[in-house]
Automatic annotation (TrEMBL):
Superkingdom of origin: Eukaryota
Cell compartments where the protein resides: Nucleus
Pfam families in the record: AP2
Ranges of residues in domain AP2/ERF: 39-94
Taxonomic placement: Eukaryota, Sar, Alveolata, Perkinsozoa, Perkinsea
Record-given protein name: AP2/ERF domain-containing protein
Coiled-coil region list: none
Record carries keyword Cytoplasm: no
Keywords: DNA-binding, Nucleus, Transcription, Transcription regulation
């Protein structure tokens, strides 16, 4: 029987396990522990009697940080509804993070394109200036040579 660690954080459940009495053993057998497990990453049962959503992402390149922790209380929403809402919220956060990354790809591509255009314009201007300098130098040389 796999018991979630977060469930063991509840004092009354921990006492029930440590008591070792016949009554506590019978109660432990009656509880469906798999209900307290969630297959979605970042969603877990919290000892306060709620489902907790944790979402943490960092993007140092864009100086963008997300740290979200949200509780869906069983007392307010009911056990199954709170779990569904927690899973839905976690998926929404993941979807919005993916949207932001796609937007950053577009912005980064536009920024890189503008940078390359500017670099090419600068290179062309330098070549034209060099060509103009070379051309002026040749003309001066011819005049000087013709005077001698």
């Amino acid at each position: 029987m796999a018991i979630p660690k977060s469930v063991m954080a509840s004092g009354y459940i921990r006492r029930m396990f440590r008591a070792g009495t016949n009554e506590s053993r019978e109660l432990i057998k009656q509880i469906e522990w798999t209900k307290y497990l969630c297959g979605v990453r970042g969603v877990r049962w919290h000892p306060s009697g709620s489902w907790r959503v944790q979402f943490k992402r960092r993007c140092y390149e864009h100086n963008y940080f997300v740290n979200c922790s949200c509780y869906f209380r069983v007392g307010q929403w009911g056990f199954d509804r709170a779990k569904e809402m927690a899973i839905g919220y976690r998926r929404r956060l993941e979807y919005e993070w993916a949207e932001v990354q796609e937007a950053w790809k577009v912005i980064d591509h536009e920024r890189e394109t503008a940078r390359l255009k500017k670099r090419e314009a600068r290179r062309v201007a330098e070549l034209e200036a060099q060509e103009l300098m070379d051309h002026d130098g040749d003309a001066d040389g011819l005049l000087i040579g013709g005077e001698e």
